[in-house]
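User: I'm preparing a small set of examples for a lab meeting where we compare how different chains pack in three dimensions. I only have the primary sequence for this one, and I'd like the structure in token form so I can line it up with the others. Please keep the answer compact; I'll paste it straight into my notes.
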Amino acid sequence: MGDALDTEGGEQTTVTLWVLRKDAHVMTCVLSGGPGHRELQVLMDQEVYLNEIHTVRDGAIGRARTLLRGFEAHGWTPERVEKSIHGSDPPPGAR
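Assistant: Understood. Below is the structure token output for the 95-residue chain.
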């Protein structure tokens, strides 16, 4: 795909996929790890809300998209979304 989540030589990376806000709360989705072992974490107010291990990068990205859509449907507003999650056009309101 050639985005911020791709690395050369199997390096470990950490990328913030999206940040959402609702009321006085902040929810952040972070993907970390390297080839064959990706950890997807959703943090709410800097506390772990959800933690998943994925062996396939595209599976982790798909799950992050699903979570994002679900939270948006429940009134969370995007503040920042990595372009690999929504393609080249971010959702309205996202930076």
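A couple of notes for your slides: The beta strands are 13-22, 25-34, 37-44, 47-54, 77-81. The helical segments are 57-73, 83-86.

User: Perfect, thanks.
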